[in-house]
Every structure is written in structure tokens, then in C-alpha cells.
Design goal:
The protein has 572 residues and is α/β, with parallel strands linked by helices. It has helices at residues 88-103, 122-134, 154-159, 162-172, 183-195, 211-219, 268-278, 294-303, 334-339, 344-352, 367-373, 388-400, 404-417, 427-436, 445-454, 458-462, 468-472, 475-489, 501-512, 518-530, 538-546, 559-569; strands at 17-19, 30-36, 61-65, 75-78, 107-110, 176-179, 199-202, 225-228, 234-240, 244-249, 257-260, 283-287, 310-314, 317-318, 384-385. The longest helix has 16 residues, at 88-103.
Amino acid sequence: ATWHRPLVTTASASSVDVPKASVQGGSSSSAPLAVATAAGSALAVTRRKRPLQRSASLARGRCLLRSSSTEAPVRVRFAPSPTGVLHVGGARTALFNWLFAKSQGGEMILRVEDTDVARSTAESEAAILEGLKWCGITWDEGPDLGGSCGPYRQSERIKAGIYQEQLDKLIARGDAYRCFLTPEELDAMRAEAERLEQAFIVQSPWANAKEEEVQAMIDAGKPFVYRFRVPFDREIVVDDLVLGEVIWNSDELGGDFVIVRQNGMPMYNFGVVVDDSQMDISHVLRAQEHLMNTPRQILMYEALELKVPTFGHMPLILAPDRTKLSKRHGAVSVGEYQRRGYLPSGLVNYLAQLGWNDGTKQEIYTLDELLQCFKMNRMSKVAAIFDTDKCKWVNGHHVKRLEPDQAVDLIGSLLKQDELVKEASGEFVSKACMMLKERVGTLAEAVEELKSMMHFDLEEMLASDVAKPYIEDGSIKETAKLIVEAKERGDLDSVGTDPEVFKTLAKSISEARGGVKKKALLAPLRLCLTSSDHGPDMGLFFSMLKDADDNVLCESVSLDERIQQLKEKFEV
């Protein structure tokens, strides 16, 4: 992807066209430029005056940034804001960071960006950490583990004066200044730019204010923010691990941007530069929605004379209608998938395939297998579509892979919770769990699946559309008669011990009915014995049903009772 930023020259508003970012090979659109100047004055479409004091590192020119040296130890970070739950997008970002770091023998750092005081909560932080752990994602340093680069909460780093120290450096070098523009003044500038159909670029009159003017405002108690002084006509080039070469021009970054709020809280772009540098982060891997933050961050890295990390911007996750993934498209948080009975291995497997593949047709992976084959050069540049059906399909494969004791522990506990059994133990529970794990996409589906398997209602079946053709051709009545006769001959006495008993029964019924096969044979047989035209292997099912005892609380109609109902209904 290549982004081109042309030089902006002094001109009239009608003659200045500034193309927006465009991906190489695609189209670009244009929008005229408007520069916001001092409050109350007319908007001027001219090049901004150069500040009196400039950092040598921000002189006009071209900044070419390549990947960090491969000799440097790999250190990545995941930095959530504790203002809500861990969403699948955040979980995938953490997963890719973890896979990259561990596949390179590196480390992952967990940092909590809790500068949004009004919305950040300890409960949210705990839930996010718990969600990561549930996914099997670990970290080497963080607020719960400590480490040599702490503190790992931004609120604690503010108290430690970490950001103030770096802000003072920017001010001393002329790369940051106090700005007293009010929200009303900025709104007026923005409205004027919109009226003129021009791009809004902030040029604060305070960028070149005299010290005595600034001090007078401070003494008067006027609120202010700190803005970063964006250099003129700087071409910023980044060799992105995912997108390739990306190019910006500083003249289209919207002008001088705020780095510290009125309340003293650092803005995202400033805080993340300071934190990533001081925590020795070598690779910043994040979603493409952060791409436009990159040039601003690079300018601050330069201004502070800090080493720039390697960037990699991963594809977004979109809903099937290609809009932003939201609750209306289904579950969006890791916790919700956990409550719906997804396995960590299943959800992680699916998330790993949203924007990445190993070049093979393999779709089912363990976490260890993902770790062995993960390579950043297999990352896609285009957005991934979240498909809930595919997610469940992948998860179902992981449910099938459960060991017997795992299946009893996970599925059995749900059966007990929903009062289908008293205790999650015994032969019935063990056999039920082994059958259910082969038939469900999520653990939560096991409860309804068992209820469906155990349900037997002969009258309901006979009144159904499914049974209608078999009633009309007489095959259900004939099959019921043959089942009763087989029972009386003792052919079904070995149910539960002989896995072939129902195959033998089907063979004898086929011969008695003139050699019918397949659906014409099996559908009436299953309808008679289970009152359903689908279900698990009947040998396995009736072996489980034979072990039903007083531990079983759900509906349970034994094979003998079912055959007795057939005998009475069809007067055999």
C-alpha cells in the first residue's frame, strides 16, 4: 500500500486540492484545504508561518523508516482500555501479538491504558485479563505480574511523572506548546471550513505566541491543552509488516494536534509513544484502524529522539454486511462466547483465521500448531468477515476432540446445572457426554440435544408430516409389528452389550419386508423406536438409555416401554 501526500502551496481556496490517502492500485479522491487560524479572524488558505523555534529533527525533508533490526529482541504489547469487555477484535490483536512474539522467542507485555477516568473500572480490567487467560494468551510483564518497565497502568505512570518529563522535553525543543483555543473557537473554524467545503486543519495562534502572552493567560486561569507542532512538508515512509510501504505527508495530518488534555491526561498518540519506547517495544502490531495514528506517532518519536518500532497493521474484522461488527450481528465479546459454550481452543482457532492463514487448506489447529506455523508474511491486507456459522463449525471440531474426562467435566456439569441429571457421574452421564460431543457445535447445545434425544412421543410422531408417507404405505405399522416380534424372540436382549444388535434387527426387518433398504428401511425403524427421523447411532443411544437410573432427571422412556407402546398402538 502506498499513500501519497503532495506539497501544499500558497493559493486561493478554490485552487488547492489535497488528495486523501490512496492505496496503490486504487483510486484517490480529493478535498480542498482550509487552515484554521486565530479565533475571530478570517480563514486563510495559505501556508502556515514557520514557528520561531524548530527541532532539528523535524526539519523539512523525507523520513524513511524501515523495520527494526532483527538482532533486537522481540517485544510486543497488548494495551487494552478497561472501559468494557474484551471484544473478539481485541482478542485477535492480542492473539497475533502473542503468536508473533512467542514464535520469535520474544516477550509480550500487557499494558492497561486507563486514562479515561470516567469509564475505566477495575472490574473491566479484571474481566479483560480473565478473558485473555481463558483464551490461553499469556504475558511476561503486566499490572498483575510486574516487571522492569512498570508501572503498567497509564494512571500510575501519570502519577509517576513519566509523561510530564517527556512533555517538558518537547516544550524545551519547541515541538509542543500551550494552546488556549476554546471549543467554541474551534467549532467556529470547523464550521467555516465545512461551509467552504475545505479540509479542516488547525493552525493555532498560540503556536507562535510570545512568552508574556502565554503567561498572562495562565495567570488569568484560562484552560489550555498542549499541542504538538507538526512540521511542514515532511514525507513519512513506513515499511509496514502487513501493508508494505506506506507514505504520508505531514501537511495532511490536520495541523497541530493535542497531546495533553486540559485535565493533564495524555492523549493516546502521546502516551503510546512514551510507553512503547520506555517499555522497549520492538514491534507494534495492531488493527488497521490505527494506521492514521502512525505518522503522528513517528513525528513524536523523532522529536523525542527515540527509536521507532516496526509497525504492522492487521486487517479489520467486519460483519457479513461489511459494516463494523456489533451486537446486532451476534456475540462480540469473548465472555459472551464463553457463556454460549464455546471452547477457548475453538474460538482462538477461528480468530486466528480472520486475516491469516498458513498457505495450506488446514482449518483446525491447536494453539501449539498455530504457534509452530505462524508467520506475519501470511497476514492478509484486506478486511476479514466474521461468520458465526463458520465459528461454530470450527468450535464443533474442537468439541469432538475433547478427551472423555474433559467431555464429562464440561458437558456433564451443564447437564447437572440444567437438572437433567442429579450428578455429573455414572455410566449414563459418561455415555451421554461421549455421544453429545459428536453432535453439538457448542457445549451449551448439549442440554437441548439430550432433551431431544430422550424425548419419545408416539402419538406426536404419528401426527407429524415426517411420518405421513410411511403411514400411508403401511411401513410404520409393519415395522412396529416386526420390532415387537423381535423383542418377543429375545433378539433385543443384548442391547447395551452387543453393538451389532440393531444392525441385526434392521437386517431381519429388511428381509421380512421384501428386501427394502436405506431410507425406506431405516426411517420407519428409527421413527418407531425414537419417534424421530434423525438422531445418534441407535446402538449407542439405547446402550446409554439402558443405564438410566435414579440419577437421571430428564424424560426417560426405556426400550421395553417404547416397544409396549408400539404393541398397544398397532394391536400387535
